[in-house]
Design goal:
Blueprint (H helix, E strand, L loop, with lengths): L3 E4 L3 H13 L3 E7 L6 H5 L2 E6 L10 H11 L3 E3 L9 H9 L3 E2 L4 H8 L1 H10 L15 H11 L3 E5 L8 E4 L2 H19 L4 E5 L5 E10 L4 E13 L2 E7 L6 H18 L2 E11 L2 E8 L6 H8 L3 H10 L15 E8 L11 E2 L2 E3 L6 E5 L6 E2 L6 E9 L2 H14 L1 E3 L5 H7 L3 H4 L7 H9 L1
Parallel strand pairs: 1-2, 1-4, 2-3, 4-5
Antiparallel strand pairs: 6-7, 6-8, 9-10, 9-12, 10-11, 11-14, 12-13, 14-19, 15-18, 16-20, 17-19
Helix pairs in contact: 4-5, 7-8
Length: 447
């Protein structure tokens, strides 16, 4: 097992990893920018190293500074959390060159899954169902029209190196295609430095279903069930739950087994999430995230297994602590992402939290790194906390969530708490009857 882990992240995920390390008896080092000197994870870590000014590129994305912090403190492993350098193959390779363990998959696997076109090819080879579309990048309008005609309209154009909805455009007719293609390429080039795009069939009312997987790097793979992340705004997840209200036990087992086998065959090491669009009983691969997900706590709630512990075990060479038959699913869990944003306009709302009170009681978990008097900096993601609620079934979980949201108090800034109080009382949400477009339509009605 590792002696000392450096946590290359900030906020609630840095605190989440720190807690796991302490439970395992591992010394912790955190890095931070000057804007995060008073952050909770900095206060609680065994050691902390300031690695630069507030801009991420000069601190949390500064590989040289993070490696130097490892060498100064004697850290023998790095946990990247999510975001920042968590899916940066170059970072994983550089750490390996310095004999520092990256708590995550190999650089090669990060590269494969980071390229959306190569990821789709790999998924198809591994037996994972994929969305009909182009075999690779689209070279020109003529090829785009041919592919679109073959798979049928509407189609969606996506950036090969994309994420977060950038470089993504829908064409409902051939007349829309040329403009959509050029716009997507332009956005992709500006956002990612790579204007390669590909085309897929556009599904009208799909759910977003993702399967949590783990591999030991030596040919074993398991799945921890699925999560439903269909409530999204601008392709950003807002509300996640496990298990999905849309799946039955047979579907859950089928897609889980397919994903676990694929991970084993790939020789993958550590945590990963295979994401699908689901419509009319069929799953269609869209991407794989080679890291811990923001929404991992709902999986922990229904399985009772600490996924960060599991990451550290696998990276240390100890292997997986569970077999597939050991993983049982108990009850239902929902996570709400609490952001420092205006609940109507979603404009960021940095500032000082004057009062912070979290809910409690059976089945309630709050992952947050903020506290009363904490000043939220304007430089980073607006997520300030996650409310995770678990119940014996979905009805109990929803009732408990309603109560927890009523107890949650964050004063001094605007947050998305009012949005969740509205959602928990909506009949469609109560019935689990929603798709990936539902939330944006709901928000549009309120404007």
């Amino acid at each position: 097992m590792f002696q000392k882990i450096l946590i290359a992240n900030r906020g609630e995920i840095a605190l989440r990893v720190l807690r796991a390390c302490k439970e395992l008896g591992i010394q912790t080092v955190v890095v931070h920018s000057t804007a995060d000197s008073d952050a909770m994870h900095v206060r609680l870590a065994d050691e902390s190293v300031c690695i630069g000014p507030p801009p991420s590129r000069e601190s949390y994305l500064n590989i040289h500074q993070i490696v130097a912090a490892c060498e100064i403190t004697g850290a023998d492993a790095v946990h990247p959390g999510y975001g920042f350098l968590s899916e940066n193959a170059k970072f994983a390779d550089i750490l390996a060159a310095h004999n520092i363990t990256f708590i995550g998959p190999s650089g090669d696997h990060i590269r494969i899954m980071g390229d959306k076109i190569e990821a789709k090819r790999t998924a198809k080879r591994l037996g994972i169902p994929v969305v009909p579309g182009s075999d690779g990048a689209i070279s020109d309008d003529k090829e785009a029209k041919r592919v679109a005609a073959e798979i049928g309209y509407p189609v969606i154009i996506k950036a090969s190196a994309g994420g977060g909805g950038r470089g993504m455009k829908v064409a409902h007719t051939e007349a829309d295609l040329e403009v959509a293609l050029q716009t997507a390429k332009s956005e992709a080039g500006a956002a990612f430095g790579d204007d390669a795009v590909y085309i897929e069939k556009y599904l009208e009312k799909p759910r977003h279903i993702e399967v949590q997987v783990f591999g030991d790097g030596a040919g074993r793979g398991v799945h921890f069930g699925e999560r439903d992340c269909s409530l999204q705004r601008r392709h950003q997840k807002v509300w996640e739950e496990a298990n999905s209200p849309a799946l039955n036990a047979e579907e859950r087992s089928r897609i889980g087994d397919i994903c676990a086998k694929a991970i084993a065959d790939l020789g993958y090491s550590g945590a990963g999430t295979i994401e699908f669009l689901y419509e009319n009983g069929e799953f269609y691969f869209i991407e794989m995230n080679t890291r811990l997900q923001v929404e991992h706590p709902v999986t922990e709630a229904i399985t009772g297994i600490d996924l960060v512990h599991e990451q550290i075990r696998v990276a240390s060479g100890a292997g997986l602590s569970v077999r597939q038959e050991d993983i049982k699913f108990n009850g239902h869990a929902i996570e709400c992402r609490i952001n420092a944003e205006d609940p109507r306009t979603f404009a960021p709302s940095p500032g000082t939290i004057t009062h912070f009170h979290t809910p409690g009681g059976l089945g309630i978990r709050v992952d947050s790194g903020v506290y009363s008097g904490y000043k939220i900096p304007p430089y980073y993601d607006s997520l300030i906390g996650k409310l995770i609620v678990h119940g014996r079934n979905r009805v109990e979980c929803m009732m408990r969530l309603r109560r927890a949201l009523d107890e949650f108090v964050v004063d001094g800034i605007k947050t998305t708490l009012p949005l969740f109080r509205d959602l928990v009382g909506n009949p469609d949400i109560a019935n689990g009857d929603y798709d990936i477009h539902w939330l944006e339509k709901y928000l549009a009605k309120g404007e």
